[in-house]
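Lab notebook, page 48
Experiment: co-folding of the full assembly
Goal: obtain a model of how the components sit together before planning crosslinking
Operator: M.T.
Materials (sequences as entered):
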Amino acid sequence: MRLSKASIAIAAAGVIAGAAWAETARADYDSYTVPNLVYRTGAYAPNGIPLANGFIDYFNMLNERDGGVEGIKVDVVECETGYNTKVSVECYENLKNEGQSGALVFNPHSTGVTYALIPKASEDKIPILSMGYGRTSAADGTVFPYIFNFPATYWSQASAFVKYVGEKEGGMENLKGKKIALVFHNSAYGKEPIKTLETLGAKYGFELMLLPVDHPGQEQKATWLQVRRGKPDWIFMWGWGVMNQVAIKEAAAIRFPMDKFIGVWWSGSENDVAPAGPAANGYLAGTMHAPGSNFKALEEIKTHVYAKGNGAGEEARVGEVLYNRGMLEAIFTAEAMRNAIKIHGTKDIRGEHVRDGFEAIDLKEADFDRLGLKNFMKPIKITCENHEGDGPIAIQQWDAAAGKWNIVSEWIEPMHDVVRALVKEDAAAYAKENNITPRSCS
Amino acid sequence: MELIYAVLVQPFVDMYLDPLIFIETVIKGLMAGVLYSLVALGFVLIFKASGVFNFAQGVMALFAALTLTGIMEYMPDGLPKWLTVIVALGATVVIMILLAVIIERVVLRPLVNQELIILFMATLGLSYVLEGAGDLMWGSDVKVLDIGLPTDIWDIGGVYVEQLDVTAAIAAGSLVAVLAIFFTKTRIGRALRAVADDHQAALSVGISLQQIWVIVWSVAGIVALVAGIMWGSKSGVQFSLSLIALKALPVLILGGFTSIPGAIIGGLIIGLGEKVVEVFWYSVHGGAVENWFAFMLALAFLMFRPQGLFGDKIIERV
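Observation: model returned without errors.
Model output:
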């Protein structure tokens, strides 16, 4: 019997269609690999540990409660970096092809490491989630298709701080003639907000005083003598690790008013204020989410992870600022994975699919309710072009007597008009320098 | 021309125009120097007795402070604070002495008569072991260290002086006095100096090298505890505390590796120099010069006195 060309074509189409159907119906993976670059040891361990704990506890909860993401377990593979860029890059190289799915996303937990991984991850098509840190101009998704820094960048945060100060001073026009000092970690991370603050200083007429502090920041007397000498009206801090604790203590020692001292959201954890004791009362810090443990998602973690003896840390510390932030990273990662599965119609996803999943993140208040995070943060929408979102930022204040953070401001919209122009400019310069043709998002 | 003015004239004009800040800078510089000296003292003690540069000295300060806070956490509630502090301090001193015995038995004794560089490498390994042990025993969280030291400030005519800094200065001064008496007036102290001068000659007259090493590592451990308390009271006890050893290096280069007064004077010069330069030459360098300036100052001294300010001059006969 001879088959006609038409019948062969029909048969072939049937085989292909069948294969495609099979692909959507089942998955070949036993688990998804989500690496996490952590620092549970070294000088920055006190901050690295709660971040790492929040991240792994959330995925362990999903594995216990839901059998993972869409029924496939998530294997969180930690790699200890000691907050060292070279070691972090080695971790990336060792883990990028780990497991059946390969690495689906990397969380570098360091702006310096993020800078180092941007070209590598872009080439390997693995998304980098530098949540609220990293290279600010990576917010431009046309130039940095694999880098995400939502819910807000350092530049947005700096502009929100200036708005907050303007409000406290009785109007933006009153910023003229004021002096704002920036005490910053003398690294790529600490230097990030300088450009924005300089631009805003020129726009609103305030003077910017730059005070770098070298790693690790154990000794800062000279910096705070400069503050005594320069007499700034407000201080912003871009610190990390011991630098935060020493700075808050030194600020108290020179009797600088704590309610005029605002730390970036990486300078606003319980660890940062504890050594200063009552002297830290009133200290302010930016935040992207609410503090505290009064959220259903955290209860779920306690029920499904800690009650079974599988918690990564102490149960009493679930709900601390950095724990919640680590959990939030995991939540965004899991949502991006779910989106990727939906968009591509397969559970056999890889990094490039998860990139699409991140770009489809559109979490409204009802979604946060579903996730057990009612009133935890503001809605967020990520697109192909905008990897930052619209990031409203709140200011939280430390209540030393009660031992807790309270949100004391409205959610502040960053100055998108100023920041986005700077982002475009910097991203365009990066694209030119690296011969990148920005992709079309239309 | 502008640069010359900024370097050679403006800072002195600022000092004259803002005398309170200048005085405060000098005081804070000297106080910071005392804290550097406390760390440097531990290095000097071990170097004097064995010629070994103890890379683990910074980690010993961390380990001692971690142990102290850890023990205080486990003390029963309801005890008076002074009793808690005394018991915890006593227990920590005992642990540091035990640590010295273990180091002598496990690390140093098997390496007798080995090259000094091998002993140095052994202390490098020791620093990793101690850091890991501290992590395992007490965890990596920031621990608040409150043993009742005064933390308020004195406002003396507009000059702020931290009471904790003054306490550290008194502690360092007392330690130096006690160590000076110990080294010059006691039998063990003289034996220790003999070992430092010549191991073999000391052995030939019946001085026990092992015993001397245990004593000197114990004393270095107690000095590390004092340094750990002073630094830990400021920043909380955490793993970055081990990096204070870096602050002691320029002090040692400047003061000499074998001189206790050198560690003190070196610390004061480094502390004062880096603070004054950081604050009054800010318009020239833009800040964050403390770390490298200390080394630059020390290296400048090396050009003229390679043995440091108070170090022993090495004369080799051909």
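Interpretation: The interface with chain A takes residues 18, 21, 24-25, 28-29, 31-32, 35, 131, 135, 140-142, 144, 146, 151, 153, 160, 162, 231, 234-236, 238-244, 247, 274-275, 278-279, 282, 286-288, 290-291 of chain B (CB under 8 Å).
Next step: discuss with group before ordering constructs.
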